[in-house]
Amino acid sequence: MDADTLRAMQAPIKQLYREAPAAALVPARAEARMDIDDVACLVPTWHGETKAGLHPAAGGDGSLACSADMLLEAVAACAGVTFRAVATASGVKIRSGRVIAEGKWDARGTLGVDRSVAVGLTEITLRFEVDSDADHAKLARMIQTTEHYCVILQTLRNPPRIRVE
Q: Would you state the pLDDT for residue 7?
């Protein structure tokens, strides 16, 4: 896809959102069905089901998806797609590229071993590896733009109100 095609595809959508801001409020939904025979959940995705369970650091055997890894996959995918959109809109040809998301969490918090230890990921690093003719400064600006517009990255940086029912 080139910049003109992307702009043409997005132009009517942007116009709609300018004229009717409420149309831009996009619902998102995920579901996890509890496995009654295992400490696991089945998560329907657009491409099939993922079975998520305990990480080996919390007692799992490593055969099931880890929710922390799934979160990192979401931020890596969102950053990658956003970067590609930025590159396309900028007319920058990308020969190859990937986004690596790495995080750390302390299992003592999750297992209740030490209540002073945070539960959850406490740091996440995104690394962009891009093969392009664009110079380093241009790639840095593109990554900054990606940071600004990546939905999942911005959600993690500015967490939404979460209500549990």
A: 93
Q: Which domains does the chain have, with CATH numbers?
A: 31-65 (no CATH), 67-157 (3.30.300.20)
- HSE-CB at 165 with a 13 A cutoff on CA atoms is 0
Percent of the chain scoring above 90 in pLDDT? 98
Amino acid at 66: C
Q: Residue 86 in contact with residue 146, Cβ under 8 Å?
A: yes
Residue with token string 């809109």: 89
The answer for 59, left when phi > 0, alpha when psi is -120 to 50, beta otherwise, is left
What's the pLDDT at 90? 95
Looking at residue 77, its pLDDT comes to 98
